[in-house]
Write a structure and sequence with these properties.
The chain is of the alpha+beta class and 125 residues long. It has two helices and seven strands, in the order H-E-E-H-E-E-E-E-E. The protein has a five-stranded antiparallel β-sheet, covered by helices on one side. Strands 1-2 form a two-stranded antiparallel sheet. It starts with a helix and ends with a strand.
C-alpha cells in the first residue's frame, strides 16, 4: 500500500515538473526587448517577401547603407525591415526602433536598433 502512495506522489510531482512552461531564449536583445529566433525569422521572411515582390510597406524594406560600419557575417547589399516588439509582422505605420538586416540572398545579417544609439544611428542587438 505504501508503494502505491509513493508512486502516486512521484507521478504527480513529475507531471507538475513537465507541465511547467519553459521560457524561450532570446536570440537577440534590443534594449530590453527579447527576440526569439522564430520572431527574427518571421520578420526576415516578411521583409524578404516584400523585397522579392518589389513592393514595400511605408518604404520598407529598403537598402541599409551601414553608415555605422557593422561587420555582418554575410555579404551585402543589405536591406532593413522592422521587427516589432509586440510580435506582429510590420505592415505599415510606425516601424519602431528595431530592424532585421538581410541580403539579396535572404541571408540574415543581423538585428539592429535605434535604442541606445545617438541621433538616427543604430547599434547592434
Amino acid at each position: 500500500m505504501q508503494y502505491s502512495k509513493i508512486l502516486a506522489l512521484a507521478t504527480l510531482f513529475i507531471s507538475g515538473v513537465v507541465a511547467v512552461p519553459t521560457k524561450r531564449a532570446c536570440a537577440y536583445t534590443c534594449g530590453t526587448v527579447c527576440y526569439t529566433s522564430s520572431a527574427v525569422s518571421a520578420a526576415q521572411k516578411a521583409g524578404y517577401a516584400q523585397y522579392s515582390a518589389g513592393t514595400t510597406e511605408d518604404s520598407y524594406p529598403h537598402v541599409y547603407h551601414d553608415y555605422e560600419g557593422f561587420v555582418f557575417p554575410v555579404s551585402g547589399t543589405y536591406y532593413e525591415f522592422p521587427i516589432l516588439s509586440n510580435g506582429d509582422i510590420y505592415d505599415g505605420g510606425s516601424p519602431g526602433a528595431d530592424r532585421v538586416i538581410f541580403n539579396t540572398k535572404d541571408q540574415l545579417a543581423g538585428v539592429i536598433t535605434h535604442t541606445g544609439a545617438s541621433g538616427d544611428n543604430f547599434v547592434s542587438c
